[in-house]
Amino acid sequence: xxxxxxxxxxxxxxxxxxxxxxxxxxxxxxxxxxxxxxxxxxxxxxxxxxxxxxxxxxxxxxxxxxxxxxxxxxxxxxxxxxxxxxxxxxxxxxxxxxxxxxxxxxxxxxxxxxxxxxxxxxxxxxxxxxxxxxxxxxxxxxxxxxxxxxxxxxxxxxxx
Length: 160
Description:
By secondary structure, this protein is mainly beta. The chain has helices spanning 26-29, 50-57, and strands spanning 2-3, 10-11, 64-67, 77-80, 84-88, 95-96, 107-112, 115-120, 127-129, 132-133, 138-139, 145-148, 151-157. A six-stranded antiparallel beta sheet has the order 4-3-13-12-9-10, with helices on one face. Strand 12 and strand 13 form a beta hairpin. The longest helix is centred in the middle third of the chain and has 8 residues, at 50-57. The relative contact order is 0.18.
């Protein structure tokens, strides 16, 4: 019988997630299926509305902003103003993305020495930067598109 590597809960049957703590068990079950495809259409930076453009211009040098310019969540903004920001479906994540396509603890944004990075936290659907599935830490640049589940966000840093 298998045990959850995160909490030690005994697993009665094969599963993708621990029924006790919600940790991903993909490595135990061997299931690495990605169920959501990246969106490949290009987002144009010129399409920002005046309020989003003003928010980007007002950013301090040591912070960044993720904007959702299109879709059902258009206008949502997420500030990255500390060294570690978590994103996921868990209510305690710094960036709470409430959709089934987002894992509880999906991605992590980090800031170090004036640079911003994103990494996937072993999510089921993966994290994409500019349409590419990432593996490990990826540096972010102005205008990069970060896709977490169905959420497509454009990255802007205050130092650009």
